[in-house]
Backbone:
């Protein structure tokens, strides 16, 4: 079946995107050249010429790069070719795509345009393929092509029929699982401490302004005015708090306001952001593991963050954020949501504790952080010797908590690790998704009949999770469990 | 140590000599660099503490040399086991910390037999098994065994899983 493959250009808005980038790049230099610099200086006219020439070249570059960048969607791969002088081709086989992320800046919205990033499990700079601007219909087309891959094959196979699959074979129905209410959002804005975010922003803004103008005199006046009486101090603090909270609320509403988790039989869709919209769509099969994370505050308030472990694009933090389902879910809801989204995943709350020896082992481990801290402390500031004792007690308390809170379970096709003392994380994955296992035993662990077990999941390139101080009998069980992996996987027919 | 699946194949006994020689050379090179630095330190009257640090490093190198030339190699050899079947590669090794790896054949990406100058002298090969995570090595196998193993793994690893 030879399909005609069309080389397509991106939406012209790609140029707008690049243009905004250009403005960001040249704004400060422009300000310097045209406003701040002493106009009498001999160099300034040259600088102006160079600056304008640079901007013109960049502008041409934007247009040419749009003309020269084409992408094509083939049967089994997405291909992109860019470059003005040197052609650069990048092909991503559809089967390697783990998830699709989109980002729609405010100025793309009226035109129904978005940028699409295909995230693969390959490591390095070929890890993700970004199509900077396409129409929404086009995006849907790409999404369908990628996420539906091998669906036909699958229908041919006589599989154990899942109830869910029978219902969904005709029209995949999209169901919305979660949308935060206003109350949820207000809670989130306090919990995420987003009101604190105003501080670095103020500091940064202040520094920028200070670079350009001399403010010291004015500031001194203001400072003295505020400090002149308790009344003004209190008022200032009050105003600051109001601004900070208001800022936090606005920020949270912009970030999580339009949050939505939806799914159909095959995929999960996460949408977030009010002004700039980001989405993640992922095939359920491509979720390698699920992690439930809590910090001490969330633990106290019984809230949990659910993370889908999957490949992330290089945008780093943002991408890690989008992999998380709503970070402030009530714990019960977090578990029920997982059951709704992944009927195949069976999370059990009856997990095994670590044996007594595990506590001895945890206590016997060398407290390196404390050692180094103490040596440095006694060297530099011996008068603060008591800090060393405080850290020592804290270290061993944390170890005790970690022992107390640790749980593990190896059952059916699943393995579950629960780790952490004050923070906690519960990691669950299924045998098929585990691409390698490791059991290690240090000298001391050998004496205490303990082991450390580790599993490897495929993200980009991999994610390694380990659990310390597992009794040796469980480690044996773990290996035996892993050897049954061959029953779960299906092998390709060897065609050669 | 863990199960009936415990791998049983051993590597060549000559591995002990190979490790002894290579660790000896490595430590010798490092020691001579340190000696050079110490000499330079006295000659050009560097800060005293630099020379102290260099002497401490030399001492540590001698201790580490003693361990990795005389004590470690026979033990490493003693505990090295590997085993393959159609479905898994299994490796166990380690002196103080003992590790046990299980890698499904379907997840093996490449396999190669490699040989450095010392291994060449003994006509031995190291099998390198590449996975998504990084690679695993089975050190010091006799030529015939190494090639056989490489071909076996390559053969089993040809089959891939249906990714769903």
Residues:
């Amino acid at each position: 079946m030879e399909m005609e493959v069309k080389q397509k250009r991106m939406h012209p808005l790609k140029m707008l995107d690049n243009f905004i980038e250009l403005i960001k790049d040249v704004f400060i230099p422009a300000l310097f050249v045209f406003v701040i610099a002493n106009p009498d200086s001999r160099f300034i006219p040259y600088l102006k010429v160079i600056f304008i020439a640079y901007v013109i070249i960049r502008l041409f570059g934007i247009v040419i790069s749009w003309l020269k960048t084409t992408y094509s969607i083939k049967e089994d791969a997405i291909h992109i070719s860019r470059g003005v002088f040197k052609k650069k081709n990048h092909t991503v086989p559809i089967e390697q795509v783990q998830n699709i992320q989109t980002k729609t800046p405010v100025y793309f919205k009226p035109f129904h345009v978005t940028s699409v990033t295909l995230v693969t499990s390959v490591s390095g700079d070929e890890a993700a393929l970004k199509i900077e601007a396409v129409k929404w219909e086009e995006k849907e087309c790409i999404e369908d092509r990628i996420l539906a891959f091998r669906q036909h094959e699958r229908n041919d196979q006589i599989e154990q029929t899942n109830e869910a699959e029978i219902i969904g074979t005709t029209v995949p129905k999209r169901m919305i699982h979660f949308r935060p209410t206003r109350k949820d959002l207000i809670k989130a804005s306090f919990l995420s401490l987003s009101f604190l975010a105003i501080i670095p922003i103020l500091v940064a803004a202040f520094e920028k302004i200070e670079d350009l103008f001399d403010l010291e005199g004015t500031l001194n006046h203001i400072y003295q005015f505020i400090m002149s009486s308790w009344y003004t101090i209190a008022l200032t603090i009050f105003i600051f708090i109001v601004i900070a909270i208001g800022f936090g609320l606005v920020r949270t509403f912009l970030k999580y306001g339009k949050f939505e988790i939806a799914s159909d039989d095959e995929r999960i869709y996460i949408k977030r952001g009010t002004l700039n919209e980001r989405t993640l769509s992922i095939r359920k099969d491509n979720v390698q593991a699920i992690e439930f994370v809590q910090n001490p505050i969330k633990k106290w308030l019984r809230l949990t963050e659910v993370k889908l472990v999957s490949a992330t694009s290089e945008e780093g933090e943002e991408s890690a954020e989008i992999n998380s389902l709503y970070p402030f879910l009530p714990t019960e809801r977090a578990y029920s949501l997982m059951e709704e989204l992944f009927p195949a995943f069976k999370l059990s709350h009856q997990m095994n504790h670590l044996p007594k020896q595990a506590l001895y082992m945890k206590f016997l481990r060398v407290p390196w952080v404390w050692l180094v801290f103490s040596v440095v402390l006694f060297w530099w500031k011996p008068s603060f010797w008591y800090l060393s004792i405080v850290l020592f007690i804290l270290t061993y308390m944390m170890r005790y908590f970690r022992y107390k809170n640790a749980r593990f379970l190896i059952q059916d096709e699943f393995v579950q690790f629960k780790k952490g003392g004050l923070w906690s994380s519960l990691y669950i994955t299924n045998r098929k998704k585990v691409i390698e296992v490791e059991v290690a035993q240090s000298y001391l662990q050998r004496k205490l009949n303990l082991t450390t077990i580790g599993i490897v999941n495929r993200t980009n390139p991999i994610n390694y999770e380990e659990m310390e101080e597992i009794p040796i009998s469980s480690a044996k069980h773990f290996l035996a469990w892993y050897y049954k992996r061959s029953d779960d996987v299906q092998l390709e027919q060897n065609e050669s | 140590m863990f199960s009936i699946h415990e791998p049983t194949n051993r590597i060549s006994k000559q591995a002990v000599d190979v490790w002894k020689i290579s660790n000896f050379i490595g430590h010798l090179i490092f020691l001579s660099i340190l000696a050079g630095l110490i000499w330079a330190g006295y000659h050009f009257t560097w800060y005293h503490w630099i020379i102290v640090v260099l002497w401490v490093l030399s001492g540590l190198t001698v201790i580490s040399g003693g361990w990795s030339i005389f004590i470690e190699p026979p033990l490493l050899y003693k505990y090295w086991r590997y085993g393959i079947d159609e479905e898994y590669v299994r490796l166990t090794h380690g002196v103080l910390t003992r590790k046990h790896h299980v890698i499904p054949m379907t997840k093996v990406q490449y396999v190669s037999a490699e040989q450095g100058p010392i291994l060449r002298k003994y006509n031995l090969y190291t099998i390198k098994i590449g996975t998504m995570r990084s690679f695993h090595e089975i050190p010091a196998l006799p030529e015939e065994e190494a090639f056989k193993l490489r071909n076996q793994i390559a053969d089993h690893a040809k089959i891939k899983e249906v990714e769903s």
Summary: Chain B is about 50% helix and 25% strand. The longest helix of chain B spans residues 48-79.
